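Regression test case RT-17, inverse folding.

Input:
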């Protein structure tokens, strides 16, 4: 199965205090499934890791070290996606353009979405997109 991963899910793979069995199960899929992310993902992860380092959730230099680890994971870049698709999803579901970008790419490419963002997961469910992780339905 192919899936799109967002920064909230990947953060749980990287930040020790956010790890859980359900998020680890999604990371384990990287060995057998194709994982994709928009180009935005890498910027969000840099920002998230810098913030974690600044708040001492990571050691000094941890942001760089964890970016190296993240880049080693089998995550393919889907590019920026469609402006029209992203904006349409943002308006329809009252999402930020950032979150709507993940949703639009999952929708257009017919992929599941791995996220820990409740609003994004709800929007994806409305669009008929399967959710991976702890927010997946029964």
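Golden output:
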């Amino acid at each position: 199965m192919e899936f799109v991963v967002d920064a909230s899910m990947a953060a749980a793979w990287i930040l020790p205090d956010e790890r859980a069995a359900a998020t680890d199960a999604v990371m384990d899929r990287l060995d057998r499934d194709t994982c994709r992310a928009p180009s935005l993902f890498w910027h969000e992860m840099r920002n998230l890791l810098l913030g974690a380092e600044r708040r001492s959730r990571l050691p000094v230099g941890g942001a760089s070290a964890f970016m190296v680890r993240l880049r080693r994971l089998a995550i393919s870049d889907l590019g920026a996606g469609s402006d029209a698709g992203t904006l349409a999803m943002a308006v329809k579901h009252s999402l930020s353009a950032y979150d709507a970008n993940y949703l639009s790419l999952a929708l257009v490419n017919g992929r599941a979405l791995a996220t820990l963002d409740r609003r994004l997961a709800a929007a994806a469910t409305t669009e008929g997109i399967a959710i991976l992780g702890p927010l997946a339905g029964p």
